[in-house]
Structure formats: structure tokens, C-alpha cells
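Standup notes, structure subgroup. Blocker cleared on the zinc ion input:
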Amino acid sequence: MSLGAASGDLPGTGGGNGAVPGGELSRPSVAMTSQQRLRPSPNKDHTPDSYDDLQLDFSPAIFSSLERYLPSTMLGVSRDDKVKFMRGILLKYLPHGERNRAQRHREYRQKIISNYQPLHRDIYIMHPSAFFVPTFLKAINDNTEESLRNIMSEPSPGVFTFEMFQPQFCELLLSEVKNFEQWVNEVRFRIMRPNTMNKYGAVLDDFGLETMLDKLMEQFVRPISKVFFHEVGGSTLDSHHGFVVEYGNDRDVDLGFHVDDSEVTLNVCLGKQFSGGELFFRGTRCDKHVNTGTHSEEIFDYSHVPGRAVLHRGRHRHGARATTSGHRINLLLWCRSSMFREMKKYQKDFSSWCGECLREKKERQQQSVVATRSELLRREGESKA
Ligand SMILES: [Zn+2]
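Run returned:
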């Protein structure tokens, strides 16, 4: 089984990430004839259309400015046709890579945040006693390895599970997501999906939950990963990608075998009623070993329980089995460490967390023990002779 890396965050150019805003406008369909050349100087008497409400891959201001250069025959056509025509021109002069993806993504977010009306404003601000179960909160406040160990089970090495969210919080978050999706459908907003592997679900960071999720990572995930995932940057997590995924008959059904674009992944089941949908884990691997075989002790399957969290390394290979009935929604928080990623560039041995690097290292050690022993025996034989 060959395995992919799920990625997310920004609209992709090469990675095949979620939908690109404005991607439906693939090729300009308005033919450019000799009469339709741009004017050499702008038409100052013309008032351009506004393009602010469209999801485009160039700034709306560029379209408004360029419109003054359109040939007079183009000024009377529909706004859509003008967009197609101008986009065709822009694409010729600005290569894909030069368009500032981060800037476009900021604009995309801004557009949602300034138009979408949240249903439950309470969940946009971190409110620990309302969000978390008391046992979890106490363990975090005590902040010792022992207090954390006490609330966790580690059913397989590197997979930690614990009670995290109160049912009330899960319900509010589910209803907020539903409200957001209704808004998306009503205004026919073209949204970006959470990553390359899910067709359903929504990026929570895109509609106002980024600040709350940042606190969730800094104050509640980092203290845990500092203890249990120190060797993959667990103590220096500094950014996140937060989203929900939805599984069921009319949603995504299962999720293929993959690794996450994260150092540490928090995966919390929010509900609702469902059967199936188990997570399967198959060992942690570095880039070089990502497609190597699984050893029997690495095989582990986990059944989701609403409100319960699973925390694992992003490089822990996993997938989700089919949700066979009902509807399952999970919150995912991919936590990243820029420091770890920088350091990783200069390392070759990841035996502190890659199962295969560790196996190779042990094999090398064993071979060197065997070699030393036979060398000693040889010398002993020489001295006797
Ligand atoms: Zn390795």
C-alpha cells in the first residue's frame, strides 16, 4: 500500500490541495480579436465595475483598474465576460508562482469573516471551564507528567487517548459548523476544503476560530506534547491548521492510509451517532521510510468515542475505516513546529521516533557487536597459536 501525505492550509498550485477560489474560471472563453485589444491609455470617463464580491485569483482592485483599459466594445458586456477576458490577459503576464498565495488566502478569510454571522459567539473565545471536562482541566493545571499520565491511556506506543470536551461544547461546535455550511450554501460561496483528502468538512481557522484554536494548541496541546512528543518538536509547536471532517453516507466515507502535515495531531470526535469509522495506525515513519512495511507490534485500531481525544505524531501512519452508518464529525488540529522543521533538514537519523530508523540502528549495533566478537576471537586464536 503506497501512502500519501495529506496537506492543507493554502490553496495549492502544485500539491493538489482543496479548491482554488475562482478556479471555475479555467480558460477565457471570450475570443480576443483585433477589435478587442486593450487601449493604450485608460478611459478616464468610464466607471469600472466592482469585483469585491467575487472569489478571484487576482485582487478585485486589479480587475477594476484594468477595466479602464478595455476596448470600447467590451465595456457593454456582462461582468462575468469582462472577468474572463481580463483574467485571460493577467494569466499571460503573471506566472502562477508569483501570485502571492498567502495574501490571497488572507483576503479569502477576510471575505468570510466580514460576511458570516456566527451563531454561538461563546465558542470563539477560549473558555476552559465551559469547553473541557474537569479531569482534563485539572491535569493541565497541575502540569506534571504524572497528572497527565493519570488521565491518559496509551493503547499503542505513541497513541494517547483521553476525555477532553464537554458534550455541550461538542454540540455548540457542531451547530456552528452546520450554520457555517448553511451560509456557504445560501450565498453560494466557494469554500476551500480542509486538505487534499477530504471533500467534505470546513477549515475552522477560515471563519473566525483561529485565535481560539491557537490558545487550544498553546495552552492545552503543547503542555501534553512537550512531555510525550518532545523529540518531534512537541515543546515548540508554534502554528496550527484546524478543521472538521465529516463522514457518512452523504459525506466522505473513509480516509486512505496517510501521514499528516503536522508534528502532532489532535483528533477529537464531536459526534454524532455512527458506527464504523475506526482509526487504524501502522507505525511512525520519517520521509525516507514512509512506505516501508508494518511490523505486527505497530498494528493498532481505535474506535472513536464522542468527546474523547486522540493525540499522535503527524508522522504516525494512519487512516480511517468506512463510517458504515450515521454521521461522524471530528475536529482535527494539526500542530506544527517551525523549529523542528528547520532542524530536520540537517538530520539523517530519526531513530528517536521513526520505527524503521530505529530498527536499522539496532541492526547496525548488532552487526558491530558480532564483528567485534569475531575479531576478539580471532586475536585470541592468534595469541594461542
Ligand atoms: Zn526513518
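Discussed briefly. The chain is about 35% helix and 20% strand.
Next: hand off to the docking folks.
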